[in-house]
């Protein structure tokens, strides 16, 4: 069977799976297993289990649950709220000061937590009510939260850098050094 036909059959099966309403995880996983069994035989199951088990034994991935835990601690303890209030008092008098403060505190949270989703959710819970109360537009609110929160993938310690380093067999320390300079740059440019 040619590669083009395999690709067309795979995409057709994927679209049918999406249209059937099967959850994405189970649909894509099931399709991968079926096509793996058809194309490569029963060795596919063994290789899949072996690869998944090998990844879970990685020393690098041990830090990710701790980052998630730290994000929850920061959000539930009120530390993130206090940081937000301090940032508001610092840049509040500027035009758009609360949006600038939101970007800055999202950047700080991204650097502390290391996971984009944890920083965005924590700051969304804190910043959205405060900014809506001060008559900020919803587009500006979500834009400032996402702009600052997305820096979590670039500023060390970053869970995305850890996973990338594990998969690509690169030094996580060197990746952190590479993200250390450009990561905080948007934080600095907002202050200008």
TrEMBL record:
<dbReference type="GO" id="GO:0005886">
    <property type="term" value="C:plasma membrane"/>
</dbReference>
<feature type="transmembrane region" description="Helical">
    <location>
        <begin position="51"/>
        <end position="75"/>
    </location>
</feature>
<feature type="domain" description="TRAP C4-dicarboxylate transport system permease DctM subunit">
    <location>
        <begin position="11"/>
        <end position="183"/>
    </location>
</feature>
<dbReference type="GO" id="GO:0022857">
    <property type="term" value="F:transmembrane transporter activity"/>
</dbReference>
<protein>
    <recommendedName>
        <fullName>TRAP C4-dicarboxylate transport system permease DctM subunit domain-containing protein</fullName>
    </recommendedName>
</protein>
<dbReference type="InterPro" id="IPR010656">
    <property type="entry name" value="DctM"/>
</dbReference>
<feature type="transmembrane region" description="Helical">
    <location>
        <begin position="6"/>
        <end position="39"/>
    </location>
</feature>
<keyword id="KW-0472">Membrane</keyword>
<keyword id="KW-1003">Cell membrane</keyword>
<feature type="transmembrane region" description="Helical">
    <location>
        <begin position="140"/>
        <end position="167"/>
    </location>
</feature>
<dbReference type="Pfam" id="PF06808">
    <property type="entry name" value="DctM"/>
</dbReference>
<keyword id="KW-0812">Transmembrane</keyword>
<keyword id="KW-1133">Transmembrane helix</keyword>
<keyword id="KW-0997">Cell inner membrane</keyword>
<feature type="transmembrane region" description="Helical">
    <location>
        <begin position="95"/>
        <end position="128"/>
    </location>
</feature>
<dbReference type="InterPro" id="IPR004681">
    <property type="entry name" value="TRAP_DctM"/>
</dbReference>
């Amino acid at each position: 069977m040619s590669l083009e036909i395999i690709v067309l059959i795979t995409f057709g099966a994927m679209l049918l799976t999406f249209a059937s309403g099967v959850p994405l995880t189970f649909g894509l996983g099931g399709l991968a297993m079926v096509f793996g069994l058809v194309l490569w035989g029963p060795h596919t199951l063994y290789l899949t289990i072996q690869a998944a088990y090998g990844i879970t034994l990685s020393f690098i991935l041990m830090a990710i649950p701790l980052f998630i835990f730290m994000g929850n601690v920061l959000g539930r303890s009120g530390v993130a709220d206090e940081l937000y209030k301090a940032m508001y008092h610092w840049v509040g008098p500027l035009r758009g000061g609360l949006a600038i403060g939101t970007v800055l505190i999202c950047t700080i949270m991204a650097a502390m937590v290391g996971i984009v989703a944890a920083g965005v959710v924590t700051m969304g819970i804190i910043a959205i009510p405060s900014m809506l109360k001060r008559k900020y537009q919803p587009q500006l609110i979500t834009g400032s939260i996402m702009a600052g929160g997305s820096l979590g993938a670039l500023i060390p310690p970053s869970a995305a850098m850890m996973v990338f380093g594990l998969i690509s067999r690169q030094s996580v320390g060197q990746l952190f050094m590479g993200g250390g300079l450009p990561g905080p740059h948007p934080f600095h440019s907002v202050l200008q």
